[in-house]
Design the sequence.
């Protein structure tokens, strides 16, 4: 009898391992496919907004556009992982549940934890992977993207001034040239705007030349043979009450900071979210030494935000398993809709709590964990409830 019991126990363990291996393979495939799809969606959004716009304007070649997309990919993975893993979990468990396989497995004595353990193991692995991405590779990818943009602008800054096109990439300025001849812009106009978007200065030049200043990291604009007029500060659009001062010049030089141009295609590398973990910790020590409490909270908030995005993977899996069992549907559209709704609610909560950054007394660096904790508590509750039935 003991021998038979031992053989039955061995057979049961082998059966559990086979089932777990099958769930691991199915779950990993669905998760990997879902993450890839969401990375592509997020990448497409950035490409339409930034990279493809550069290519369409003739400012960058197709090959360089593809290079930009590859560089941007790591910075999008941290957002795609929770979405993809939740979707993959819903697809995997939903398929088992719709075919009544979970009911059969539980009837055979296999617990829900044993069924879900492969997915939890995958979630732990992707959580660690996400921490590396968030703290190291994502900031470096943004820095590499900005370096590539600078290289492109340094090689040929004239690409950013297309003939007979209003150039609005520089905040506070609008540029226009009738034609481009031998590296010279003919019949060139530049409008300077105030904070309300009203024109304060208008300058016209017969010719203009644009060059890149490596030392000061700015674009140098040289206007020749033209006129400039200054609009009244209080009534810039009034052309009747007073005369408009007119200036005639032979040459006028303007400086357009390159940071303004890059702000259109990517934020400054000095921003906290583009710092690696080592840089964040170093900035935090400096803020503590300077007793700059608001800046210290901002740095701590950024560190915690990276951690929250990584541990959201575990939260999504814990919540996705019981929800997939309860839905009893295997349709991809249902699971995709549910995953997007849950993820958007989570992301909005994290963003809303980040708005408290300007009020250090609210300690947004601690409150930002609330959505994760709530999701995990709800997931554990639903998981235990599903395990009993």
Sequence:
């Amino acid at each position: 009898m003991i021998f038979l019991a031992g053989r039955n126990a061995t057979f049961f363990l082998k059966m559990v391992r086979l089932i777990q291996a099958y769930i691991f393979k199915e779950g990993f495939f669905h998760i990997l496919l879902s993450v890839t799809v969401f990375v592509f969606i997020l990448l497409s959004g950035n490409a339409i907004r930034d990279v493809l716009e550069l290519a369409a304007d003739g400012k960058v070649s197709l090959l360089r556009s593809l290079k930009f997309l590859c560089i941007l990919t790591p910075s999008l993975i941290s957002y795609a992982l929770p979405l993809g893993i939740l979707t993959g979990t819903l697809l995997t468990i939903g398929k088992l549940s719709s075919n009544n396989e979970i009911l059969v497995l539980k009837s055979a004595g296999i617990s829900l934890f044993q069924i879900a353990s492969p997915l939890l193991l995958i979630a732990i692995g992707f959580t660690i992977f996400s921490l590396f991405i968030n703290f190291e590779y994502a900031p470096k990818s943004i820095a590499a993207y900005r370096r590539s943009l600078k290289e492109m602008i340094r090689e040929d800054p004239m690409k950013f001034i297309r003939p007979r096109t209003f150039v609005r990439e520089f905040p506070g300025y609008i540029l226009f040239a009738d034609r481009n001849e031998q590296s010279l812009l003919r019949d060139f106009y530049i409008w300077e705007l105030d904070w309300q978007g009203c024109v304060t200065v208008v300058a016209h030049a017969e010719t203009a030349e644009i060059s890149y200043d490596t030392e000061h990291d700015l674009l140098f604009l040289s206007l020749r043979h033209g006129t400039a007029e200054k609009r009244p500060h209080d009534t810039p659009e009034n052309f009747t009450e007073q005369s408009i001062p007119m200036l005639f010049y032979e040459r006028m030089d303007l400086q357009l900071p390159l940071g303004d141009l890059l702000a259109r295609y990517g934020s400054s590398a000095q921003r906290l979210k583009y710092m690696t973990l080592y840089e964040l910790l170093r900035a935090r020590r400096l803020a503590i030494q300077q007793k700059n409490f608001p800046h210290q909270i901002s740095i701590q908030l950024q560190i915690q935000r990276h951690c929250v995005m990584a541990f959201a993977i575990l939260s999504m899996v814990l919540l996705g398993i019981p929800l997939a069992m309860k839905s009893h549907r295997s349709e991809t559209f249902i699971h995709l809709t549910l995953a997007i709704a849950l993820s958007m609610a989570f992301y909005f909560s994290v963003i809303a709590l980040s708005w408290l950054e300007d009020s250090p007394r609210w300690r947004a660096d601690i409150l930002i964990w609330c959505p994760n904790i709530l999701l995990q508590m709800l997931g554990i509750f639903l998981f235990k409830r599903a395990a009993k039935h």
Summary: Residues 1-5, 265-270 have pLDDT under 50 and may be disordered. The beta strands are 173-181, 184-193, 199-213, 218-230, 246-257. The chain has two domains: 2-154+285-388, 159-265.
